[in-house]
Write a structure and sequence with these properties.
- The chain has 2 domains: about 20-50 and about 170-365, 3-Layer(aba) Sandwich (Rossmann fold), CATH 3.40.50; about 55-160, OB fold (Dihydrolipoamide Acetyltransferase, E2P) (Beta Barrel).
- The chain is α/β, with parallel strands linked by helices.
- It has helices at about 20-30, 90-100, 105-110, 135-145, 195-205, 225-230, 245-255, 270-275, 310-315, 330-340; strands at about 40-45, 55-60, 65-70, 75-80, 110-120, 125-130, 150-155, 160, 170-175, 180-185, 215-220, 235-240, 260-265, 295-300, 320-325, 340-350, 360-365.
- Bound molecules: S-adenosylmethionine.
- S-adenosylmethionine binds near residues 192, 221, 246, 268 and 301.
Length: about 375
């Protein structure tokens, strides 16, 4: 990647040409998972630059000046004035926002970080402060108006949003298998950071669903990123997630997209398993008849820690598992248990994080005695 901060900034570490990186990462994944899968890994590449639609930077004060910073290769702070891996909207906003903050002493004082999120037609800057900010509300409104962006300003115990009249959620559309889906999500909740690769992941997961699918159980559903498109392949879907704001967005998203066969419930994955086992009853499930579902597929997209022991054991009772993982180490640990009774039918590598060692994988598992 052509970046003047490469080798100093610790964010991107791979220096070989992009296509070579993909080959090397694919080979390393093939070696690491050779006990579970020896077929051809399906590879989904990123744009080599301009791919990140969510990015966070530190802000460093030195005298009157203010700079963006990243962690350097040796852990030291590195001043940067551009980042070619962020998408064009963020790339263009970064210098303009910095100048606007620099030119106003109150906006500048004790600001220590900024996060950017961009979607197809919106952009938000989340400004982080080490001071009280409520009295700056008008300044944030003026800045949001002047730059035509959404702003969230945060400090300990305080959160301001501007412009006041606007919807606080961001809107994103994805094209999956020829259909456009519209999603709303909150700035504090999880989102996939590489929108183009995300579209490929969701499309791939949908393509893993075999004919004759009945109902789907999804744990870790976020705001319904996979749930909405995959629901078209099932009779009914039960999708759960621990984050309150993601589940609220998911409910909004089913309505926005005119989808009626999904029930979203806010629940910890282990709690849901104890409810499915009949060990515990939950008020949140009062309106849900768990026994009416015939789950033919389970979709799992856990955080880096992977599956808990109880989730890992329980999902073995179903016939098909689609597992999306952002951490090869925990995926490998989980496969070593699941593959007692399952085989890996398809294995995909999604290069969400070009120029880094990170790898996102997708695995399609099928019960051994099923065709
Ligand atoms: C990798 S993200 C995937 C989200 C979603 N599938 C997507 O594509 O946007 C993992 C999700 O798991 C949720 N989560 C973390 N721990 C959880 C738990 N113990 N039970 C249920 N959900 C959990 C997080 O809030 C997050 O939304």
């Amino acid at each position: 990647m052509l970046c003047k901060h490469f080798s100093e900034c610790g964010s991107c570490v791979l220096s070989t040409p992009y296509d070579e990186q993909v080959l090397l990462k694919t080979k390393s994944i093939a070696d690491e998972f050779s006990d579970f899968f020896t077929g051809e890994i399906e590879v989904f590449k990123s744009e080599p630059v301009g791919y990140r639609t969510r990015a966070e930077f530190g802000l460093w004060h030195e005298g009157d000046s203010l700079s963006y910073t990243m962690h350097g290769v040796n852990g030291a702070r590195v001043m940067i004035d551009e980042c070619p891996k962020v998408d064009a909207k963020i790339f263009n906003l970064m210098p303009v926002l910095l100048e606007a903050i620099k030119s106003d002493n109150e906006l500048k004082f004790k600001i220590f970080g900024v996060e950017f999120i961009s979607t197809d037609n919106e952009i938000m800057a989340i400004l982080l402060y080490h001071k009280k900010i409520t009295h700056l509300s008008d300044k944030f409104k003026n800045l949001a108006k002047a730059l035509n962006i959404k702003i969230v300003a945060r400090s300990r115990g305080e959160r301001l949003f501007a412009p006041e009249s606007d919807d606080e959620r961001l809107t994103q559309s994805l094209n999956i298998a020829g259909r456009q889906y519209v999603y709303k999500f909150s700035e504090g909740a999880f989102i996939q950071p590489n929108t183009k690769v995300n579209e490929m992941m969701v499309s791939w997961a949908l393509s893993c669903v075999k004919m004759g699918a009945k109902d789907m159980l999804e744990l870790y559903c976020g705001h319904g990123n996979f749930t909405l498109p995959l629901s078209t392949a099932f009779k009914n879907v039960l999708a759960t997630e621990i984050s309150k704001s993601s589940i609220k967005s998911a409910a909004i998203n089913t309505e926005l997209n005119g989808i009626a066969n999904i029930k979203f419930i806010r629940m910890d994955a282990d709690e849901l398993i104890s409810a499915l086992r009949g060990d515990r009853e939950f008020r949140r499930l009062e309106q849900v008849d768990l026994s009416a579902y015939e789950f033919s597929h389970v979709l799992l997209d856990p955080p880096r820690a992977g599956l808990s022991q109880s989730v890992r054991e329980f999902v073995k009772s179903y016939d098909n598992i689609i597992y999306i993982s952002c951490n090869p180490a925990t995926l490998k640990r989980d496969l070593s248990v699941l593959c007692d009774t399952f085989y890996v039918g398809r294995f995909a590598f999604f290069d969400q994080f070009a120029h880094t060692h990170h790898a996102e994988c997708g695995v399609c598992l099928r019960k051994r005695n099923k065709q």
